[in-house]
Amino acid sequence: MMSTVNLDNLPPEIMEKIFTQLKYDRDTLEALGLTCHILFAHTRPYRFQNITLHDQNFDMFMELTYITPWNSILPHVKRLTLGGWMRPLTYCSPGNSTPNSSLGRDLTKWASQFNLLKSLDIRGAIWAELPQYFKSALLSLRVEHLDVSIGWRSLAVEEFQTHVFPVLRPRSLSISGSLRDRDFVQFYPTHFSPSPPLYIHYLQLYEAGPVQEMRDWLRHCDSPPPVIHLHIGLPKQKDSPYGLLIAEILHMVSPVHLYLGLSLVVQDHFEFALESFTNIQTLRISSIYNDGYLIPVMPGTEDISDIPVTAAILRQFSALQDRIQIIQLDSVCAHLNLIFGEIPDILSTSYPNLKKLILALSPGKRIRRAKLDAWLADGPFAMLRSRGVQLKVKTLPILSEFVMPSMV
C-alpha cells in the first residue's frame, strides 16, 4: 500500500524552497494561505515581508496586529513603508473599534515585535503631523536602512538631524526630495558593507532642497560617510549659491554611481572636482532634449543647448575613463531621428575602457523592439559596438526636469 504524504510530513527545507520560489507571486501566496491552517502558517513569512501603511489602511492594520493570529504578522516584516505618492500617511488616530485601549498611548510592545525589520521608509509620511505615541514607537525600532525625504513636507532637516537619525542609528541611509522623483534607483540596498558603520546608499541634491543644511551635516560628521548613488540637479549657473554648495559637497563625498540632471536652461558649464571621484564606476546624464523638442527659454538669458553641455561633461570625466565602466544618456525625443553632436566621437576616443553604453529614450509613443535594434545597429554609436562596448537602448516615459528612470 502506498504511504500517504501530507504537508506535515514534508521536510522543512522542501517547504522553504517551494515558498521561496513564490515569494514574488503575491496572488498565489494569498490563495495558498486561505487553503488551510498549515499553508497559512507557511506562507505568512513571505506574504508580509513588505508592509505599507497609509491613511486608508492604518486603523485596520493596527487592529489586526493586536489580535490572534494576526499579531504573528509583525515578526516577519522586513520592510516597513509609511505612505506613498498617491496615499500618504498623515494621521494615525485609531478608531473606536481598536481592541486595546492603550494603543493610543503606548506602542512599545507592538514595536518590539518587528524583530526581523531591516528597512524603514518614512518618505511618504508627514512626520510633524504624526502623533507622538506613533513617532516614539517608530524611533524604538532597530533597522539597518533608513529612507527619508528631506526638505519637503515629509521630514524637516532639524528633526532629522536632532531626533530621527541619532536615535535610529541605521547602517545605511537614503536622502531625497519629493517622493515622486525617486523611482529610478533601488532604495533598499542589496547588501550591507560590514565597514564603515554608516554609508549613504542614495543622496539627492537639488536647488530647491536643503543643500546648505546637508553640507553642514556632512561637515560635522566624524568623517563624511561613503556615498553609493549621488543624484545632482546641476545648477544653471556654476557660481550661484547653489552651485558653490554643490562644489563644496563634491569635495567631501566620492560616489560610485553619479546621476546628473540637466536644468532646462543652462547658462554656463559646471566644473567638477574630479580628484574627489575616486570610486566612480557609473556616469548618467539626463536628459538630452533632441530633434525639435521645445525648450522654454527664460527672457533675457542665453541658454546653452544640452547636447554641448553633455559633451562638456563627458570631456571633463574622460580624465576618469579608467574608472568609468557604464555611461547612460537619457533623451526626450519625438522619434528616432536623433542628434548627438560630438558625443559619439567623445565616447569612442576618450573612453577606451568603457564597457556599456545605455541610451534611455522617451519617444512619447511605443516603438517596436525591432525598430530600436535596427536604429542602434546603424546609429551614431555603432562604432562603439565594433570596439566591444555593450550597447543597450530602451524606451521610457517622458522625463521631468530632474527625474531619471532606473539603471539596469
The structure class reads: alpha/beta
Shape label: globular
Radius of gyration over all CA atoms, rounded? 25 Å
- Proportion of residues in helical segments: 25-40%
Order of helices and strands: HHHEHEHEHEHEEHEHEEHEHEHHE
Strand content: 15-25%
Poorly predicted runs of 5 or more residues: 95-102, 291-303, 398-408
Strands of the biggest beta sheet: in what spatial order? 1-2-3-4-5-6-7-8-9-10-11-12
Described by strand count, sense and barrel closure, the largest sheet is: 12 strands, parallel
Oligomer: single chain
The pLDDT mean sits at 78
Q: What is the terminal-to-terminal distance?
A: 54 Å
What's the number of extended β-strand segments?
12
- Note the total helix count: 13
Organism: Macrolepiota fuliginosa MF-IS2
Protein name: F-box domain-containing protein
Which labels suit this protein?
408 residues, alpha/beta, twelve-stranded parallel β-sheet, 12 strands, 28% helix, globular, disordered C terminus, F-box domain-containing protein
Structure notes:
With 408 residues, the protein is of the alpha/beta class. Helices cover 28% and strands 17% of the residues. The protein contains 13 helices and twelve strands. The protein is globular and about 65 Å long.
Summarize this, please?
This is F-box domain-containing protein. With 408 residues, this protein is an alpha/beta fold.
Q: How are the SSEs ordered, and which strands pair?
A:
Layout (H helix, E strand, L loop, with lengths): L11 H10 L4 H8 L3 H11 L2 E4 L4 H7 L14 E4 L25 H5 L6 E3 L10 H8 L5 E5 L7 H12 L3 E5 L22 E7 L5 H10 L6 E7 L7 H10 L6 E5 L20 E8 L16 H12 L8 E7 L10 H8 L5 E7 L6 H10 L3 H5 L3 E6 L13
Parallel strand pairs: 1-2, 2-3, 3-4, 4-5, 5-6, 6-7, 7-8, 8-9, 9-10, 10-11, 11-12
Helix pairs in contact: 2-3, 8-9, 10-11
